[in-house]
Amino acid sequence: MDHFFNPKSVAIVGASTKQGKIGYDILKNILQYSYSGAVYPVNPRTDTILGQKAFPDLLSIPDPIDLVIVSVPPPRVLDVIRQCKEKDVDSVVVITAGFKEVGGAGSHLEEELVKEIKEAGIRLIGPNCLGIIDTASFLNASFAAGMPLAGHIGFFSQSGALCVAILDWALGENIGFSKFISLGNKADITEIDLIRAMADDENTRVILGYLESIEDGHTFMNVAQSVSKKKPIIMIKSGTTSAGAKAASSHTGALAGSNTAYNAAFKQCGIVHAHSIQELFVYATAFASQPLPKGPRVAIVTNSGGPGIIAADACDLSDLELPSIKKESVERLRSFLPPTASFYNPIDIIGDATSERYKKTLEVILADDLIDAVLILLTPTAAIDIVETAEAIVALAKNTDKPIITSFMGERKVRPGRKIFQDNGIPTFGYPEEAVAALNAMFRYRQWLNQPEKEFVRVEVAIPKVRQIFASVTEQKRSDLIEIEAREVLEAYNFTLSKNILVNTTKKAVSAASEIGYPVVMKIASPDVLHKSDMGGVRAGLENERMVEEAFFDITSNIRQRLPNARIMGISVQEMVRGGREVILGISNDIQFGPMIMFGLGGIYVEVLKDVAFRIVPVSVEDADAMIREIRSFPLLRGVRGEPAADLLAIRKSILALSQMALDFPEIIEADINPLVVRPEGKGAVAVDARFTVQE
Ligand code: ACO
């Protein structure tokens, strides 16, 4: 994408002599920020614009053009693209709005635009965008009001308006960018191209993105996963996908909300997920200017108790730790701090602290090898010289490889201190919680970097058997599997199932029950009865022959009465599985990311608390373990109050088997295994009930 970011020549088609017009602003921006390449305004109505010779069209320009910026009304855009083709231009930014975003004729026009550029081998940013900026080549090919400072954040955004706001904010905060790109409608170039380009860009240390949608989830994940091992990708995603709106018949489908797939994908790719614009920039500032912490151990240095406790609480809710500092460090601190100071983390150097006290304390803390990162809090007391303290911190930061994050609380008095930090690349935040959030995100990213290569396993399964079942379901013009089929599918993927015998007479039911062993469960087997319990098609806890006979009669008459047309294949007599934790596993499908696996504890945990974890297929061993640990009710699986731990390896195996199945059979639209009864450690898990919906 070199012609976009470092072009030798730029033409602006639609450049205007009239102030206030977008074509005027773009040309002015290109000219006023020291871009050193050739600039060609194109406008048929004038000879010069802003002192530059203007050309009536692209073809009249005698020299080759690397980049064309298009700012003419929508009906003229295609003609300009044809000229680009003729002139061998390969990189175009279309600013013009009125395409897909307006629907109808606009969508049609965008389709034609895409067709034209594909045929011509042109790469395109936009349409409907603000333009692009590269601070290394001093190119501001946008109509933004201002030029960002040079820095190490590469930013792209699907919203042009947000670009403008962020640029203004960043100028106020002294935050610099390497690249600044408004993606617009993403008719051709998408976030994937930009992540790739920024991965190789030596000026970009942090990739920052605002997205409303991702169209090619699979490629996005592949690219993001490898790039995030090189440099951090911080992303905010807004808006919902249509996938969330679809009617789901399984638990898993119903629990897969609109952003579930994005959340899962970001986790799997090591993307630092910001949940607000504020968070996006808290993270960006910290990642762009500070080294990553080597571990989770943070020391808080403060001149007041309250903020120290607030920061400590925030650490407690995060993955960070607040260890005690070394004994020798305490001794050193005692030699110059007043006895009323607190020598244990948070280290409170109390209200009359001076800049000298901060400096000496920080020297001790930064040298302490039990500490990985330092959070410096300050409230503006009369005793403190803000500027001196900030300067001392800047000097110390130059000689350490530990990240330093600051929060000088207040506004008017601390402002000069913040300014010093901003000028010297020390992240500074108004509130301790933001500082902790930044450090936590950095530590998590460090963990991602430390993670070994993901392990994907495949096990021997009976694919032909499952293929045959799905084919027969489709032949019968069904999309839902009956239980017996669902059980066979699971068996083919090595799940252990509760004992089960399909019967069609009372007598056979009784002998099946005695073969399985009491107590038993009986369930209707019918392709037309999906909600078996609701229809009176299930009886549990059957202890003897008489109860089995009664259940057989009740179930058949309930179904005949309530669903007279239902086809009945018989009644399943099943073992009553007890003595384990009930969990739910499932498959659902996302339009952009494809199949996802869900895991959670069964019963109220899934129904009321919606305490579930999702991952996109294929799920690695590490992802499966992370899913298990991610749910809030995980301590119940680990064992509480003397209860034995559940067989976590059996859960992992089940998640991986389901992931393999979803990959092998994309025709599975939704599936639930509910419940999977997980026995204590080493004793495995038993699938009791399952349902599958396949593409008809
Ligand atoms: N070749 C060269 N120049 C041409 C051509 C052509 N084929 N056709 C027209 N021009 C010239 C015009 O003569 C005019 O120059 P002039 O001012 O000297 O007469 C200039 O190009 C612009 O054409 P206009 O017809 O005056 O169009 P205008 O400038 O009003 O609008 C624009 C063009 C800006 C592209 C408009 O159609 C548009 O899309 N505006 C919205 C842009 C937008 O919002 N993008 C998303 C931004 S992201 C965000 O939300 C912040």
Question: What is this structure, in a nutshell?
Answer:
The protein has 696 residues and is α/β, with parallel strands linked by helices.
Fold and architecture overview:
- The structure is a single chain.
- This protein is α/β, with parallel strands linked by helices and 696 residues long.
- The protein contains 24 helices and 28 strands.
- The strands form six sheets. A seven-stranded mixed β-sheet has the order 9-8-11-10-12-13-14, sandwiched between helices. Strands 23, 24, 25, 26, 27 and 28 form a six-stranded antiparallel β-sheet that branches.
- Helix 4 (105-120) links the parallel strand 6 (91-94) and strand 7.
- It is flat.
- The relative contact order is 0.07.
- Residues 242-246 have low confidence and may be disordered.
- It binds acetyl coenzyme *A.
Mean pLDDT: 93
| CATH fold field value of the largest domain | Rossmann fold
* Sequence stretches where pLDDT stays below 50 over 5 or more residues: 242-246
- Helical content stands at 25-40%
Secondary structural class: alpha/beta
Strand content: 15-25%
Helical element count? 24
Shape: flat
Spatially, the strands of the biggest sheet line up as 9-8-11-10-12-13-14
Specify the biggest β-sheet.
7 strands, mixed
Q: What is the CA-based Rg, rounded?
A: 32 Å
Report the CATH architecture of the largest domain. 3-Layer(aba) Sandwich
Say which molecules are bound, naming each kind only once.
acetyl coenzyme *A
User: How many domains, as an integer?
Assistant: 4
Per CATH, the superfamily of the largest domain is NAD(P)-binding Rossmann-like Domain
Total number of strands: 28
The CATH class of the largest domain is Alpha Beta
Distance between the termini: 43 Å
